[in-house]
Amino acid sequence: MARRTCSQSADTAKEGTEPPPFPVPHTDYYFEDGNLVILVENTLFKVFRSTFIRHSAVFRDLFNLPRPIGGATEGSDDDNPLQFSGTSAVDFARLLWILYPVAGTLEEWTSILSLATRWEFNDIRDLAIRQLQTLPGVSPVDKVILAREYEISGRWVLSAYTALCERPEPLSIPEASRLGLETSVRIAQLREQLRASLRKSSRIGGYHSLTQSAAVRHASIASSILASAGKRSPTERQQWGMGKSFLYQCDVPPPAPVCTSHQRSVARKGATAIPGTARLVAEAFGIDIAG
Fold first, then answer.
1. First vs last C-alpha separation in the chain
2. What is the pLDDT, as a whole number, of residue 239?
3. What is the mean pLDDT of the chain?
């Protein structure tokens, strides 16, 4: 197969959105002096074998396998590329942004985290987690899902669970669908527990179970609910009753926190360092707050 240049690849990409009938070099990650050719979907990447050996135990083991006698080595050229299935060219290019840098959005860092975790690029995985934790505008639901999928613990995910338990509005149907039944029920139970604590502490003249800022927010919400209670239609009251009956009467048992014995121990020891709502959340979800 005739080798194409990066400029030819870029011209091809501009002609239309239909993929070409043959593999084409990536416009940024096809290095003429590279010594490892990788085919992902219909895109050729020419990179450096030493980079993958240095950063990934998976690739290090792969390249240590015996080579076929008399045959071409996979990854040696465009005609014999190392091929990956189940990976998108976009995701793979985003991982290369770290090896031959840099990325910036939630979607990009999630792609990098996914492949770095799969292929044991441990230092890149740590970098991706740090970058995700500093990105602005990531929703609490996205944080919880990322933390659960990629085993991220610490105060970042704790803040996400706490926000879902403290915010005025309950989980929406799309949010509950993404989080799953057990997590959604657990969050609903914690919300009810916090509101019960607020009502009890209000009767004795204090906010002993919640942080001061959370108590102020909840007091404002309670006032709004009381002011509008008389305006609710019978249908709305009936729906609210159905919702409460699900929480209190459903056959679904409270889900056990998914965590190791070490995480439970750390959560118990560290919980004394954080107040109120966050402490309850850490205990309920077995979050290691030492991280």
1. 51
2. 38
3. 76
| Percent residues over pLDDT 70 in the chain | 66
Alpha-carbon distance 89 to 227, whole Å? 55
**Which DSSP string do the residues of 206-260 spell out, in sequence order?**
S--SS-HHHHHHHHHHHHHHHHHGGG--HHHHHHHHHHHHHHHH-SPPPPPP---
Can you give the residue ranges of every domain in the chain?
Answer: 6-63+72-134, 140-229+245-285
Q: Looking at residue 14, what is its pLDDT?
A: 42
Q: Answer whether CATH 3.40.50.720 is correct for domain 6-63+72-134.
A: no
Of 61, 26, 64, 30, nearest to 42 by C-alpha is 26
Angle (nearest 5°) at CA 114 between 113 and 120: 80
Residues linked to residue 25 through DSSP beta bridges, in sequence order = 44
